[in-house]
C-alpha cells in the first residue's frame, strides 16, 4: 500500500514538474512575444515621426542634387520643353574658358581672406570680452547685431559708408590727405570692399562663439599657468588656443561654407561687377542660370562647387582627427 502511495506521489511530483516546465516555457514565449510587440511598436512610432521628415529631406534636399547632376550633363534654357543631353560639354566649356578659372581663384581668395581674418579678429574680440570690462554686454550685443541683419540692410549701410563723395570712408581718407576710392565701381577695389563687408558681418558671431569656448576653460588651469610664470602670450599660444581647437574647427567649417555661399551682399552692392571683378562662384552660378539662361553650365558649376566644398570638408576632418582633442 505504501509502495503504491509512493509511486503515486512520484507520478504526481513528475506531473507537477512537467506542468511547471510547460508554464515556464509559456511564460518565456509570452515574454518574448510581448518584447517583440514592444520593439515593433517602437519601430512603428519611430517610423511615424521620422518618415515624414525623411520624405521632406529627400524631396527638398536630395532630389534637387540628383536633378542638378542630371542638368549638368544637358543644355536647357528654361523655355525648351526638354533638356538635351550633351555629356561633358558643359564641364569642358567651363575649364576651357578664360573666365571660369579666374572665378575659382577669386572665390578661393575671398574664402581664405574672409575666414582667416574673421577668425583672428573674432578671437581677439572674444579675449577682450572675456576681461569683463564695463559695458562689455552692450558691446557684445552691438558686435553680434550684423549677424542677424539682412543682406539688404547690410548692403545699404555699407553702400553709404563706401560712397566716395558723401560716405564715412571719405572722412577717413581725407584725414590722411587722400581721396576715397570708388569702392564699388572700381574693379581694383570692389572685391576688397565686399570682403570687408563679409568680415564685418561674421565677426560678431565668431567672437561670441569663441567667448563661449573661453568661458568653458577652467579658471584653475589658467591660474596655475600664471603661478608658473606663463605670460599672456604664452597662455594664449600654449593653453587657450589649443583648448579652443574644437571651437576653431567648428568655426572654420561654418565660415568656409558661409563664404562660399555669399550671394546677397554681392547682388545688392556690385551685381558681380564691375567687369565681373566681384563674380565669385555663387554669383557665377546664379548669373549663368538666370541672366544668361545657361542652366546646364550653371548646374555644372554648382557641381564643381559641391565637389570643392566636400573636398575641403574631408581635409578639415582629416586634420581634426590629428590636431583637435575634445
UniProtKB/TrEMBL annotation:
Source organism, top-level taxon = Bacteria
Kindly give the membrane topology term recorded for this protein: Multi-pass membrane protein
Q: Which Pfam families match?
A: BPD_transp_1
Question: Does the keyword Zinc-finger feature in the UniProt annotation?
Answer: no
- Cellular compartments annotated: Cell membrane
Which CDD domains does this entry report, sorted A to Z? TM_PBP2
Question: What residues does the ABC transmembrane type-1 domain cover?
Answer: 104-316
The principal localisation class reads: membrane
| InterPro entries on file | ABC_transporter_permease, MetI-like, MetI-like_sf
What are the annotated GO cellular component locations?
Answer: plasma membrane
- Membrane spanning stretches: 42-63, 108-130, 142-161, 189-212, 240-263, 300-320
Q: Which GO terms describe its biological process?
A: transmembrane transport
Ribosomal protein among the record's keywords? no
Keywords of this protein's UniProt record, alphabetized? Cell membrane, Membrane, Transmembrane, Transmembrane helix, Transport
Q: Where is this region: Disordered?
A: 1-30
Stretches with biased composition (Basic and acidic residues): 17-30
Say which family it is in: Belongs to the binding-protein-dependent transport system permease family.
Recorded protein name is Sugar ABC transporter permease
Amino acid at each position: 500500500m505504501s509502495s503504491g502511495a509512493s509511486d503515486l506521489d512520484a507520478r504526481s511530483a513528475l506531473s507537477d514538474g512537467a506542468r511547471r516546465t510547460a508554464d515556464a516555457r509559456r511564460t518565456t514565449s509570452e515574454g518574448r512575444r510581448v518584447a517583440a510587440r514592444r520593439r515593433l511598436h517602437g519601430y512603428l512610432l519611430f517610423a511615424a515621426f521620422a518618415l515624414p521628415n525623411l520624405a521632406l529631406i529627400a524631396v527638398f534636399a536630395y532630389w534637387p542634387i540628383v536633378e542638378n547632376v542630371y542638368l549638368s550633363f544637358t543644355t536647357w534654357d528654361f523655355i525648351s520643353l526638354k533638356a538635351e543631353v550633351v555629356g561633358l560639354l558643359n564641364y569642358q566649356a567651363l575649364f576651357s574658358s578664360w573666365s571660369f578659372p579666374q572665378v575659382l581663384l577669386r572665390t578661393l581668395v575671398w574664402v581664405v581672406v574672409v575666414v582667416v581674418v574673421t577668425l583672428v579678429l573674432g578671437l581677439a574680440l572674444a579675449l577682450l570680452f572675456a576681461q569683463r570690462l564695463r559695458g562689455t554686454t552692450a558691446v557684445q550685443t552691438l558686435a553680434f547685431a550684423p549677424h542677424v541683419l539682412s543682406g539688404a540692410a547690410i548692403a545699404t549701410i555699407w553702400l553709404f559708408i563706401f560712397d566716395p563723395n558723401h560716405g564715412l570712408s571719405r572722412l577717413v581718407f581725407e584725414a590722411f590727405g587722400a581721396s576715397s576710392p570708388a569702392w564699388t565701381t572700381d574693379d581694383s577695389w570692389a572685391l576688397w570692399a565686399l570682403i570687408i563687408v563679409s568680415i564685418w558681418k561674421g565677426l560678431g558671431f565668431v567672437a561670441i562663439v569663441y567667448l563661449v569656448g573661453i568661458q568653458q576653460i577652467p579658471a584653475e588651469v589658467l591660474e596655475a599657468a600664471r603661478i608658473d610664470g606663463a605670460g599672456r602670450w604664452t597662455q594664449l599660444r600654449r593653453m587657450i588656443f589649443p583648448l579652443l581647437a574644437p571651437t576653431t574647427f567648428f568655426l572654420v567649417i561654418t565660415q568656409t561654407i558661409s563664404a562660399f555661399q555669399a550671394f546677397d551682399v554681392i547682388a545688392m552692392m556690385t551685381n558681380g561687377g564691375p567687369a565681373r571683378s566681384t563674380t565669385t562662384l555663387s554669383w557665377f552660378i546664379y548669373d549663368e542660370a538666370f541672366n544668361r539662361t545657361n542652366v546646364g553650365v550653371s548646374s555644372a558649376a554648382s557641381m564643381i562647387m559641391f565637389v570643392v566644398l566636400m573636398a575641403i570638408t574631408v581635409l578639415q576632418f582629416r586634420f581634426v582627427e590629428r590636431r583637435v582633442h575634445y
